[in-house]
Amino acid sequence: MSALQRFALSAIAILTLTIAGCFVSSTNPLSDPATSTPDDKLFGLWLEKDERETQVWTIGRASNESDAKNVPAGLMRAAATRINNQNEVGTPGSLLFFVTTLGEGTYLNVWDDDLAGKSIKDWKQVKIPGYMVIKYRVVGDSLELWHGNYDRVASVIDKGLVKGEITREKNGSVKTAGLTDTTENLARFMQNGGDKLLYGEKPDRILTRLRPGK
User: What is the distance of C-alpha 39 from the center of its chain?
Assistant: First the structure.
């Protein structure tokens, strides 16, 4: 099993917090985290609700609780709590991410807190096994999110537009698909129309702001 496939399986578990397994994954981010800055439009509390459960996301700068050196200034954290329609409260979880801006497009390079390890001494030595690349846009008090899906990822790989790995079921349907190209090539691909191919026009989820960050 490749590193990307292992990350995909881990991310499916992570995404029980979010989107249940359909996403754009990549071994490399869309930009260098050292050059990223936090997006203050994301700061605060955000509500996500459907007929099954209610989830509240707290988003802001990631605190450096471990006193690790060289933590990227743009590192952010999204922490979630949720309750379902049976009044059962899920185990809280959190994701780390940094923002990439490419032209008019804005993206989250996301990974689970646990994937970086809990005893970090120097962020220069952290090896993230993979990223969930989520497109986003803040419009007023709405946070629009595009997470894509495996079929879209497999399509751009099959066309040779970008490098990646695909695993298929016996019937030929896509089981997992992820991007393996370099950061530079991925950024170029996104700006040359890849964004629309991976994510389409309509956001997959929309969160509502409960309270802005202070």
Answer: 15
